[in-house]
Amino acid sequence: MEKILxxxxxLGQRVRYDAQVNYLLDNHFxxxxxxxxxxxxxxxxxxxxxxxxxxxxxxxxxHTIITVKKHDVTAEFTRGAQHALNLCxxxxxxxxxxxxxxxxxxxxxxxDGTFSNKTAAGQGVTTKLLSEHGxxxxxxxxxxxxxxxxxxxx
Length: 154
Hints:
This protein has helices at 27-34, 43-46, 74-91, 125-132, 143-153, and strands at 4-7, 38-41, 56-59, 64-67, 95-97, 109-111, 119-121, 136-138. The chain is α/β, with parallel strands linked by helices. It has one domain. Strand 1 (4-7), helix 1 and strand 2 form a beta-alpha-beta unit. Helix 3 (74-91) runs parallel beside helix 4. The longest helix is centred in the middle third of the chain and has 18 residues, at 74-91. It is globular.
């Protein structure tokens, strides 16, 4: 049975920057959780950031991650991404289900660095690192695609 690295916020853990619950409601998700497939992580907390914390976004071109108060938190995000990769390697995980738009976990889109609630095409630092190591990353928006991959891999 394939394990899945999953964003801790999807499991109802209060790890989001604003400490709000972000539980994912989906039939596939519920089944995978019941089957014990999930290995959870919040890369941001794993990297040393607290909850709650200031919102952070990736600045395009520089790939720096800053908070709304202009604090550079790139090192914490990078450290969290490395922790996620290490966990995948240790647990032999080939798939991840991570939160879209996050500067850590976004797989197709992230907030654009202007703190104006606008998004841009791009990947978060954790998604990028995992992808570079052959781990397929999905978001809550393409969970059906993950379900098909799992079905074909088992």
